[in-house]
Automatic annotation (TrEMBL):
Protein name: Nitroreductase family protein
Taxonomy, superkingdom: Bacteria
Protein keywords: Oxidoreductase
Domain Nitroreductase per the UniProt entry, residue ranges: 12-219
Keyword Oxidoreductase listed: yes
Organism: Aquirufa ecclesiirivi
Family per similarity comment: Belongs to the nitroreductase family.
Length: 241
């Protein structure tokens, strides 16, 4: 089997399964490996503004079952993984990237290395900085207006843009995780039905953190698949230009 066929098999196998076999355990090694793969997911500017909380103890799972509104996927899961966005970590992660670049420099930095240092030292603060008065947002709007007046430019200004960006990256990691679980022979169910406020409280997260999704993991059952996988025709969704 070539790589294309193997990937086809994984994608076709992955279904949202809402009821797992509670008699079949999912080894910790499977979750660990899948989380390591998830960390390799593409993300905006390699800022990695995410955290993954692995819920595995019976006591913790019982708590999160309630926070997931008693869904059967949460109730029967062998493990739960909470995917969290952490845009409040932007300073620390920008500095981490700067340190990585500096550690690879031998002698005087090249033009490309200087650009990379400026990217994280100047551009990232412009993109992510916030303040009580909203001055940072006004500055971003002004830059966008001037730079984009007659030319294509990234239209990025307010807090909503920041939230969209970090949630996109976090969702990419969650998808990698789910495909990895499928490759290991187990099943997942990404859940949006949960009390985000109480989940944040249970995880002791600050206000700036947000729950992207909670993924239940287990060995799926036939009754956990709610019907055929129906999708709109590709011609209604894909437009070649």
């Amino acid at each position: 089997m070539n790589l294309s066929q193997a990937f086809d098999e994984i994608v076709l196998k992955r279904r949202s399964n809402r009821r797992f076999d509670t008699e079949i355990l999912v080894p910790d090694e499977v979750i660990q490996k899948s989380l390591e793969r998830a960390i390799l997911s593409p993300n905006s500017s390699n800022m990695q503004l995410w955290e993954f909380y692995w819920i595995s103890s019976p006591e913790q799972k019982a708590q999160y079952e309630k926070l997931c509104l008693g869904q059967s996927a949460a109730r029967t899961a062998a493990h739960l993984v909470v995917f969290v966005t952490r845009q409040d970590h932007w300073k620390k992660h920008a500095q981490w990237n700067i340190d990585q670049i500096k550690s690879s420099i031998s002698g005087e930095p090249s033009k490309l290395e200087k650009r990379a240092l400026d990217y994280y030292g100047i551009l990232m603060p412009i993109l992510y900085r916030t303040d009580i008065l909203g001055l940072s947002t006004l500055i971003r709007r002004a830059i966008t207006f001037v730079k984009g007046f007659n030319n294509p430019f990234m239209r990025f200004a307010g807090l909503a843009d920041q939230r969209v960006m970090v949630h996109k990256s976090c969702a990419l990691a969650a998808q990698t995780f789910m495909l990895s679980i499928a490759a290991e022979g187990y099943d997942t169910c990404p859940m949006e039905g949960f009390d985000a406020k109480l989940v944040k409280r249970a995880l002791n997260l600050p206000n700036e953190a947000e729950i992207n999704m909670i993924v239940a993991v287990g060995k799926g059952t036939e009754e956990g698949i709610y019907g055929k996988r129906n999708r709109l025709p590709i011609e209604e969704l894909v437009f070649k230009r």
